[in-house]
Specification:
By secondary structure, this protein is of the alpha+beta class. The chain has a single domain, classed as Arc Repressor Mutant, subunit A, CATH 1.10.10. It contains five helices and three strands; from the N terminus they run ααβαββαα. The protein has helices at about 5-15, 15-30, 45-55, 75-80, 85-90, and strands at about 30-35, 60-65, 65-70. Strands 1-3-2 form a three-stranded antiparallel β-sheet, covered by helices on one side. Strand 2 (about 60-65) and strand 3 form a beta hairpin. Helix 1 (about 5-15) runs antiparallel to helix 3 (about 45-55). It is globular and about 55 Å long. The relative contact order is 0.19.
Length: about 120
């Protein structure tokens, strides 16, 4: 039911690069196993990401033997927040998902106008 979706929870869930990658994957593939081969994050971290997506209402989970299969609730999301998911999915990722504990590449500091050599 689309009424159980809250904008703040959905935006929070989509605000993490790993969770956004999982949502993009499900949108493209239809569903996902609980441990996709392409994702290199610890299992406990991945479980936490799936929990946040589920609690925000973005996914449903079904049991298939011993596996859990996650599905994006796209129809409900589109009904409750028209255009939101389409916009998020078509925006290119700003940074790739990184494993926890890693840092983004450092940028060289640009000198301010007063620090630049005159000349």
């Amino acid at each position: 039911m689309a009424d159980d979706l809250e904008l703040a929870a959905v935006l929070h869930a989509l605000g993490d690069p790993v969770r956004l990658a999982l949502v993009r994957w499900m949108a493209a593939e239809g569903e996902s196993a609980c441990s996709p081969d392409w994702l290199t994050v610890p299992r406990s971290t991945l479980s936490n990401h799936w929990r946040i997506l589920r609690e925000a209402g973005l996914t449903t989970t079904r049991q298939d033997g011993k596996a859990r299969i996650m599905t994006l609730r796209r129809p409900e999301l589109d009904a409750r927040f028209p255009g939101l998911l389409a916009s998020v999915l078509t925006t290119p990722p700003s940074t790739p998902a990184r494993p926890p504990g890693t840092s983004p590449p450092r940028r060289e500091a640009t000198p301010s106008a007063s620090e630049r050599p005159k000349g």
